[in-house]
Write a structure and sequence with these properties.
This protein has 4 helices and no strands. It is elongated and about 60 Å long. It has one domain. The protein is mainly α.
Amino acid sequence: MTTVTVDIINEKAMKLLEDMELLQLIRVHTETKEYFKNKNWIAKYKGAMTKQPLPEVDAQLKELRDGWE
């Protein structure tokens, strides 16, 4: 058995997955389906972080680590 994660782009795809489950071709885990159905992850986290140059990130990490010493 192989486990995969898919992003449902169109509700028709969910119907197809449910039909395949009825044919016992696949198994859809309902707790995962319900959990992700109620989350809009892209909208929630979009713009939360900006790209930073690697040296800047390293400097911030060093500063944080030095704070613990």
